[in-house]
Each structure stands twice: as C-alpha cells, then as structure tokens.
C-alpha cells in the first residue's frame, strides 16, 4: 500500500493511509446513524435540538468545522456544539442525584427495544 505524506510544521511527519481514511468514514457513519436514529425514535427534528454536547477526551480535540466537513454533524448545528471533555465520573454523579433519571433511562431502553429489537 502506498503511503501519502502530509507535511505540517511538526517535528515529525504525519502519515495518513487508506486504512486511516476508511476508519474515519466508519466512525462518521456510526455516529451519524446513531444520531438520526435517536432523532427519529424521539420524534424530533434536528432543528429542535438546543445543543449538541461532544463528550470525551478525544472529542475535545475535534473542532466543529472538521466535524461538519466530514459529515459527523450537520451545519445546522454549528452554533449549538459544546465540548465537555472527559466527563464520565461527573455524568455518573449527576445521574445519581437527578430525580427521575432512572425512570427516564428505563423508558428510553423500552423505546429502543421496541424499535430496534434489542
């Protein structure tokens, strides 16, 4: 497999292969599919979303223009994107202290089971 080299102002070369490109497309497809399935199941339009939260240590390094360019999120959500970073512990604490959260999780699970045959 022939490798193409992109030159940046970094001390080392960054090489992007065809395999790397395929992996990005697989990620884009998985995230986009999940995104639109959830919108459909919840019976809401993409423009109804008040914000999109990018969570995770890796996610904090992705800029919104890149996410839109590769198709992970649509341009209509450009101004609604918020980055949180690594939030698994904080999220667990918030969920634990949120009244009705467990009931909500069970209701979403039932919707998914009904519609996706889990």
What this model shows, in words?
This protein has 118 residues and is α+β, with helices and mostly antiparallel strands. It has one domain (4-86). It has four helices and four strands. It has helices spanning 18-41, 64-69, 88-97, 101-116; strands at 4-6, 14-16, 52-55, 81-85. Strands 1-2 form a two-stranded antiparallel ribbon. The chain has a two-stranded parallel sheet with strand order 3-4. β1 (4-6) and β2 form a beta hairpin. The longest helix is centred in the N-terminal third of the chain and has 24 residues, at 18-41. The chain starts with a strand and ends with a helix.
Kindly report the average pLDDT value: 81
Q: Main sheet?
A: 2 strands, antiparallel
Q: Hey, roughly how much beta strand do the residues contain?
A: 5-15%
Counting H and I runs of at least 4 residues, what is the number of helices? 4
Gross geometry? globular
How many domains would you count in the coordinates?
1
Tags for this model:
118 residues; alpha+beta; two-stranded antiparallel sheet; two-stranded parallel sheet; 4 strands; 13% strand; globular
Gist of the model:
The protein is of the alpha+beta class and 118 residues long. It is 47% helix and 13% strand.
Topology:
Layout: E1 4-6, E2 14-16, H1 18-41, E3 52-55, H2 64-69, E4 81-85, H3 88-97, H4 101-116
Parallel strand pairs: 3-4
Antiparallel strand pairs: 1-2
């Amino acid at each position: 497999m022939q490798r193409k080299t992109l030159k940046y102002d970094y001390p080392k070369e960054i090489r992007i292969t065809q395999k790397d490109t395929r992996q990005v497309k697989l990620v884009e497809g998985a995230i986009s599919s999940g995104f639109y399935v959830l919108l459909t199941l919840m019976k809401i339009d993409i423009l109804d979303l008040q914000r999109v939260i990018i969570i995770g240590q890796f996610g904090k390094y992705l800029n919104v223009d890149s996410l839109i360019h590769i198709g992970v999120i649509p341009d209509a959500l450009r101004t609604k994107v918020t980055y949180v970073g690594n939030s698994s512990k904080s999220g667990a604490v918030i969920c634990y202290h949120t009244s009705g959260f467990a009931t909500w999780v069970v209701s979403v699970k039932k919707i998914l089971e009904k519609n996706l045959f889990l």
